[in-house]
Amino acid sequence: MSNRPLPWRLAWQQALYGPDGFFRRSRPADHFRTSVHVGMFAEAVAELARSTSAASVVDVGAGGGELLAALRDHLPGVHLAGVELAPRPAELPEDIDWMPALPERVDGLLIANEWLDNVPCDVVELDPAGVVREVLVDAATGEETLGPEHRNPWLDQWWPLTEPGQRAEVGTTRDLAWADAVRRVDGTAVAIDYGHRAGDRPPFGSLRSYRDGREVEVRPDGSCDVTADVAVDAVADAAGGTLLRQRDALARLGIDGSRPPIGLAHTDPAAYLRALGRAGEAGELGARGGLGDFWWIVSDTRGHGRLDA
Ligand SMILES: C[S@@+](CC[C@H](N)C(=O)[O-])C[C@H]1O[C@@H](n2cnc3c(N)ncnc32)[C@H](O)[C@@H]1O
């Protein structure tokens, strides 16, 4: 690994997606839990697909294919495909397609859970003289230095820095990635991620790393995930989408977190336990301070959509 400091975007790209990159070698599920690992999430996505008469569901950044495998039971006859840089999981049912890049057209539903936060971006910092500078990083040590001036109208519009030491993750790469995905869709596209809007940006940025289920020191050396929250308002603007919190999206899709009546425990204990399990999953997916705070960026390219208020 070179010790030359690189702009964060390049170091991050190499760390996750280079020949020996983190996501080429390891399954996301081995390192963190996402909504796709909670059973009721597939029910919500299936309801969205059914209600929009989707002929196909394409999962971008499909990880280990967990969502697609779960959808298969809910959506007989619907074509399912994963877009993923990592190899096809050996256990994935044969009738689910697996491809390294987005198809030119998607007829139905495009879904991307926790993809955009892993799309690398430039990291910038306002220096003591009031100049926005690119942050460079030594991939091996994580040591940072300030590089050349970074001018970008995106920052002026979406994330202006006002105090020396403040940092931003420049969202242009995420905006472009999602707009490029949405333009291929005849139907509905949903990107789901943690993020912020103007007014609640993290003043010093949100770069983080995870490995084996724990947050670790941020380091673009391929040994851990590198992620940063998504400027969701900018992405929605670039792709022509609307924003809602996951808990509200799930409610509109009929996912109910209320506990079953205690009387059921006496008349049908097995049904009671099943219903209790489902309520627990719905609660996890909608939790405040947790997955429920995630943003759904929704674009309906046919006009009115199922998730409209
Ligand atoms: C955080 S994981 C999310 C996995 C899964 N969607 C989930 O929710 O558990 C992000 C995934 O996106 C994949 N990915 C990132 N950029 C990609 C690209 N341009 N094309 C295909 N897959 C990509 C990574 O390989 C990784 O598996």
TrEMBL record:
Query: Mind listing the GO molecular function terms for this protein?
Result: protein-arginine omega-N symmetric methyltransferase activity
Q: Transmembrane region positions?
A: none
Per the record, the GO terms for biological process are: methylation
Keywords in alphabetical order: Methyltransferase, Transferase
- Which Pfam families does the record associate with it? Methyltransf_28
Does this UniProt record's set of keywords contain Magnesium? Answer: no
Name under which the protein is recorded: SAM-dependent methyltransferase
Instruction: Write down the species.
Output: Aeromicrobium yanjiei
